[in-house]
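(Deposited chain)
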Amino acid sequence: MADQGGETSNTKVMITVIHTDHPPVISKDMPVFKMNERQTRIEALTQWVTDPDEGTLHFTLLSTTGCDDGWVNLLGDGKMTLKPLRRHVGYHECNFRVNNAKLFVLGVLKIQVDKDPRPPIWLSEPVTETPLEGKTNIAFSDDVSSRAKDLDGEKLNFSRKADVGPQWLAVDAAGALNGTPRD
């Protein structure tokens, strides 16, 4: 400092700077995680979450309807594992929390699960394993619906391929076979 006559005096000033903690930061670039049912996807959320104070992060999945039956797993280190089934097909938002030493931030995992349909299967082959028998000029009927299954639980629709098999045989959508064999 100086007075009007130009005389000066100096002193030392000591300032203590106290660190202020900052919460973790979730990148706005975190994607919508897209996948098919019955597939497993593993991601490290640490690629989208940082701590400005360079501390250790701890992740927690919060209870969220649609995400809390075990198909979404989030470990404390940010490793996320997704294992969706058919019932998880659709769009989901799963809430999570990230803590550093003192503060936290809430985030949302956005997950799109698509169907990955499988073809129906024959449980027993009507032609080779247990052949059906009909007699000439006598009405024939049988049902093949119990011999087939859709692995995804969808309703099956039966039909006859055009120009395959005898012309007298009719097949309805439920799997019933009807007709009268001719010579």
Q: What stands out?
A: The mean pLDDT is 90. The chain has no helices and 14 strands. The two ends are 123 Å apart (CA to CA).
